[in-house]
Amino acid sequence: MPDWLRLALVIAGKDVRAELRSRTAILSAVVFAALVLVVFNFARDPTALAAVDLAPSVLWVTFALAAMLALNRAFTIEQENAALDGLLLAPVPREALFAGKLLANLAFVGTVEAVTLPLFVLFFNVDLGAALPGIIGVTALATLGFVTVGTIFSAMAVRTRFAELMLPVLLLPFMVPPLIGAVQVTARLLAGRPLSEMMGWLRLLALYDLVFVILCALVFTAVVDE
Amino acid sequence: MSHPEGLGPERLVRRGTLITAVALLGVAGVYVLAWGYTPIEARQGVAQKIFYLHVPSAWSALLSFSLVGIVSALYLWLNDPRLDRFAAASAEVGLAFSAVMLTTGPIWAKPIWGTWWTWDARLTLTLFLFFLFIGYLALRAALQDPGERARFSAVIGILGLLLVPFIHLSVYLFRTLHPQPVVLKPSRPSLPPEMLRTLLISGAVFLLLYVGLVTIRYGLALAEEAGERPDAA
């Protein structure tokens, strides 16, 4: 295992352990996602719009809002008791630190998504059927993209006076390409369309991940180091 | 765009105001040309005259935002505070130009397309640029430490520059997979020479306006920094 990956896993492990001990953040995020799904159900006129037509948008707006909530806390916990200073003093390359925080955020957002998906199937009476592996795949692809950008923005937002507001304002424009792609692919998967109709979007999502993972790892040092 | 060292904030602001005043006279001149010199567009009528304001402000807005991205990358490399001041000034001026673009656009679109807004690729892209730079300036305003402010906003500037092709591509894919609007389709008329000349003059005038406004803003940033420093007289 390369050194940076080992260090990243240590940092991610610390975040996951801290979360498992209190469990407040993850539970709140899951409940929040469930509530968003419930609100969505009543925000639609059931006689005018079938649940399945709205399903991809509902799923992705819920994921996006829940991810935003989760990302807000990623660096808030480091801000308390100046824990970030301790992390920065450790002989860890900044890329490994970024990868660690990214992995922890992915674990957190991924867990919320894994709980939300069955609830979504239940509430919206969607038949995932053969689409399930595809939906898991596109969720992973899109989530990696916006959580990467979200991780770096979260580190910046905690330094401001209104972090909870700053993060969504900064992050939502960056969420637009992955969200559009994910909604389009999800809609096609649910409709049982062939893979060739999704390839354009999947390429776009993969390219987004590639560009922003590399770029964010490179500029992360500018965010944490004076 | 580096300003000569030693030029104090007052002189920069004065110089910028002068350039801006000349540019504003130029805008008035463009409108004299637009009314007296350019022909009235056959299908769009006088509504088309807003074109001489809308298109150059869009050019200036895109120029300002691209410069913010490029200068941000240079800042992280060279750490020169002048680059940060310039990026901030350019972002603010770019936001003003996009506000002009985003207000003149719907005014034109309502009589011509029959709707104030449509999710066309270009419209969506400029709207997101607008939001992106509101975020950029909000972040600057919410940070106290000048070094941190410069580094963070440079990061946003660089990421923003890379976001642009992705938004464009995704909105484009989104549209092309759907039926294209038939009634609302923006036609692309080839311009008669009078119109083209007026447009290019207006473009130059708006570039001057950009230079003037950025110079003022840069001078003001210098003055603010002098005020923030504890040893300021």
Task: Summarize the model shown.
Chain A is mainly alpha-helical and 226 residues long.
H/E element sequence of chain B: HHHHHH
Please report the distance between the alpha carbons of the first and last residues of chain A. Answer: 30 Å
Task: Provide the succession of SSEs of chain A.
Answer: HHHHHHHH
Query: Could you describe the largest sheet of chain B, including whether it forms a barrel?
Result: none
Uncertain runs of chain A are none
Low-confidence stretches of chain B: none
Class from helix and strand fractions of chain B? mainly alpha
Beta-strand segment tally of chain B: 0
Number of domains of chain A: 1
Counting DSSP H or I runs of 4 or more residues, the number of helices of chain B is 6
Number of continuous helical runs of chain A: 8
- How much helix is in the residues of chain A? over 70%
Key features?
heterodimer, A: 226 residues, mainly alpha, B: 233 residues, 6 helices, 76% helix
Descriptive report:
The complex is a heterodimer of chains A (226) and B (233). Chain A has eight helices and no strands. By secondary structure, chain A is mainly α. Chain A has one domain (3-224). Chain B has 233 residues and is an all-alpha fold. Chain B has one domain (10-38, 47-179, 210-226). Chain B has helices at 9-36, 51-78, 81-113, 121-142, 146-176, 193-228. In chain B, helix 1 runs antiparallel to helix 6 (193-228) and helix 3 runs antiparallel to helix 6. At the A-B interface, helix 6, helix 7 and helix 8 of A face helix 4 and helix 5 of B.
Which helices and strands, and how do they pair?
The complex is a heterodimer of chains A (226) and B (233).
Chain A: H1 3-22, H2 24-42, H3 51-79, H4 83-89, H5 94-124, H6 132-157, H7 163-190, H8 199-224
Chain B: H1 9-36, H2 51-78, H3 81-113, H4 121-142, H5 146-176, H6 193-228
Helix pairs in contact in B: 1-6, 2-3, 2-5, 2-6, 3-4, 3-5, 3-6, 4-5
